[in-house]
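Tokens in:
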């Protein structure tokens, strides 16, 4: 199986972002395509990142906690 055939996975990290590996199509609420800069990306789930939808690590300083 080549990298292009690998399944896309989304892994929620405890007290952290959603780590997305593989090919996805990410869009703004208006439908505009957001081009990721790499095949693996961290998506914010604390809501505090200044580079949303991507994680910038702000969750650590803010003490963000998840239930998982």
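Residues out:
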């Amino acid at each position: 199986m080549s990298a292009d055939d690998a399944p896309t996975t989304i892994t929620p990290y405890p007290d952290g972002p959603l780590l997305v590996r593989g090919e996805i199509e990410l869009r703004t609420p208006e439908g505009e395509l957001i081009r990721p800069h790499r095949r693996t990306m961290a998506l914010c789930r604390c809501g505090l990142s200044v580079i949303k939808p991507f994680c910038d690590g702000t969750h650590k300083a803010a003490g963000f906690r998840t239930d998982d």
